[in-house]
Write a structure and sequence with these properties.
Distance between the termini of chain B: 38 Å
Structural class of chain A: alpha/beta
CATH topology of the largest domain in chain A: Rossmann fold
Radius of gyration of chain B: 12 Å
Shape of chain A: elongated
Strand content of chain B: 15-25%
CATH superfamily of the largest domain in chain A: NAD(P)-binding Rossmann-like Domain
Number of strands of chain A: 13
Oligomer: heterodimer
Radius of gyration of chain A: 27 Å
Number of helices of chain A: 14
Number of strands of chain B: 5
Number of helices of chain B: 2
CATH class of chain B: Alpha Beta
CATH architecture of chain B: Roll
Strand order of the largest sheet of chain A: 8-7-6-9-10-11-12-13
Shape of chain B: globular
Strand order of the largest sheet of chain B: 2-1-5-3-4
Order of helices and strands of chain A: HEHEEHEHEHHHHEHEHEHEHEEHHEE
CATH superfamily of chain B: Beta-grasp domain
Largest interface: A-B, 45 and 24 residues
Strand content of chain A: 15-25%
CATH class of the largest domain in chain A: Alpha Beta
Largest sheet of chain A: 8 strands, mixed
Number of domains of chain B: 1
CATH architecture of the largest domain in chain A: 3-Layer(aba) Sandwich
Number of domains of chain A: 2
Helix content of chain B: 10-25%
Chain lengths: ~375, ~90
């Protein structure tokens, strides 16, 4: 009768085995891949730096994407050295040619005092919550952990800030700051969807915090019921990785710009007017332009649209604010091609998106080559959109 | 074919809420000459008394910003789209 012991003996005969010490030595030469075939729940006890995690239960499904070179030198390790042999057999059937099992597995690795690290892993709850992100190879667990570490400051909890905040909270941005000193009014509810009728009269930041906590109570939401000024901006911005500009006036937009350049923080910028909107990313770290490269000065009050002329289709900031959320996630994860050197303009009436190129101005008064120290300038508050 | 000028929403009040203007032109300067003939007020909104594009206005020929080409002397050809992009701050 064919027993498991007999099969194991056969596998040991067929595949070469090496000691953990030898595996460690070969790892350091960089000539091989170390594949950890333990299940996810076993990893909390420690993993080997540089190892690839492909659980035995799914290794056939995932190995070709993770290790496409079938001639590569692959070392397999498990808990005690049995499953690594079974995994070697599975990989052999898929055409992998150079397979070696680490005898004694992680147990012996640790007994020999070889180094391990504690992995950063999502909790079971977070695995469920962010499951659809985890299925995207470009995000995965590593990306989700990065989002959870990311600190985003939303300037404005209004038309643009509302949809951006909702999606960034849902996406698991670990720290969301919101600064706004307004209270919720009935006229806001046509577009500022983070607020509801029950929030009328409340501070916007409190209203937003309550709604966002309903969506995701596991993230940190920090609120600032105040205006953004040259007095508080340095301390505030030093606590964040990315700023989302969803404010509604030039004075604040220029201040945000100058501080983002000063602190080298990406500024995910959006603006809306009636049926038109645009979104871009100002990121001086990527040699991109800043807001002042584009518009060195705001329009004077007499040439800016007046408050009476202002107006916006309620859905419009939803589209632009969501695009800001997308760009924020792309910047956080360094994914794809953020709008660092482009403006994406949306014309709702024509149902048309247009791209326009942007470029840094080397003579810019804020990010130009000659600027040594950025001094905040003051623009008088004006009702301009 | 002619050059198409896209007038942004905040400035359409100067041209009876028209979204586009069509003109025959071989440079951006000539495009602005046409704008001036349509609306002196729009022209004044876009161009300073010294004859340069105002600091809160960007002008693009297709995807390119004329500031990074030849400014108002940037050539245009039939079929080109000239976009005017004013700063607006609504959020």
């Amino acid at each position: 009768m064919f027993t498991f012991d007999a099969r194991l003996a056969e596998l040991k005969h067929h595949f070469s085995e090496i000691s953990p010490a030898e595996a460690n030595r070969r790892m350091h030469t960089g000539s091989c891949h170390l594949v950890d075939v333990r299940e996810r729940s076993e990893l909390t006890s420690g993993i080997i730096a540089g190892s690839v995690h492909l659980p035995k239960s799914v290794i056939e499904l995932k190995v070709e994407q993770a290790l496409p070179d079938k001639t590569a030198d692959i070392l397999l390790i498990c808990g005690s050295g049995v499953r690594s042999l079974l995994a070697a057999e599975s990989l052999m059937k898929l055409g992998y040619q150079n397979l070696t099992s680490v005898s004694g597995g992680m147990q012996q690795w640790k007994d020999q005092g070889l180094p391990t690290i504690t992995p950063r892993m999502l909790s079971n709850k977070d695995e469920q919550r962010y499951g659809r992100h985890l299925l995207i190879p470009e995000v995965g667990e590593k990306g989700q952990l990065k989002l959870l570490e990311t600190r985003v400051l939303l300037v404005g909890a209004g038309g643009l800030g509302s949809p951006a905040a909702l999606y960034l909270a849902a996406a698991g941005i670990g720290t969301l700051g919101i600064i706004d000193n307004d209270v919720v009014e009935l006229s806001n509810l046509q577009r500022q969807i983070v607020h509801g009728e029950s929030s009328l009269g409340m501070n916007k930041v409190d209203s937003a915090r309550a709604r966002l906590a309903e969506i995701n109570s596991d993230i940190r939401i920090t609120t600032y019921n105040e205006s953004l000024t040259e007095n508080n901006i340095n301390e505030l911005f030093s606590n964040y990785d990315i700023v989302v500009d969803g404010c509604d006036n030039f004075q604040t937009r220029y201040l945000i710009n100058d501080a983002c350049v000063k602190h080298r923080i990406p500024n995910v910028h959006g603006a809306v007017y009636r049926f038109d909107g645009y979104v871009t990313v100002f990121d001086s770290r990527q040699a991109g332009p800043c807001y002042r490269c584009l518009y060195p000065e705001p329009p004077p009050p007499e040439l800016a649209p007046s408050c009476m002329e202002a107006g916006v289709l309620g859905v419009l900031p939803g589209i632009i604010g969501v695009l800001q959320a997308v760009e924020t996630i792309k910047v956080a994860l360094r994914l794809g091609e953020p709008l660092t050197h482009r403006i994406l303009r949306y014309d709702a009436l024509a149902a048309e998106f247009t791209e326009l190129d942007t470029r840094r101005n080397s003579e810019c008064s804020v990010c130009g080559d000659a600027v040594k120290d950025i001094q905040y300038q003051h623009y008088s508050q004006q009702c301009a959109v | 074919m002619s050059v198409t000028v896209i007038i942004p929403a905040p400035l359409r009040k100067y041209v009876n809420n028209t979204k586009t203007l069509e003109c025959q032109a071989s440079s951006v300067t000539e495009v602005f000459d046409h704008i001036k003939s349509e609306s002196q007020a729009l022209f004044d909104h876009l161009i300073t008394t010294e004859g340069s594009v105002r600091e809160f206005i960007r002008v693009y020929v297709n995807k390119s910003d004329i500031k990074h080409r030849d400014g108002l002397a940037t050539p245009v050809a039939s079929g080109d789209v000239v976009s005017i992009m004013p700063a607006f701050a609504g959020g």
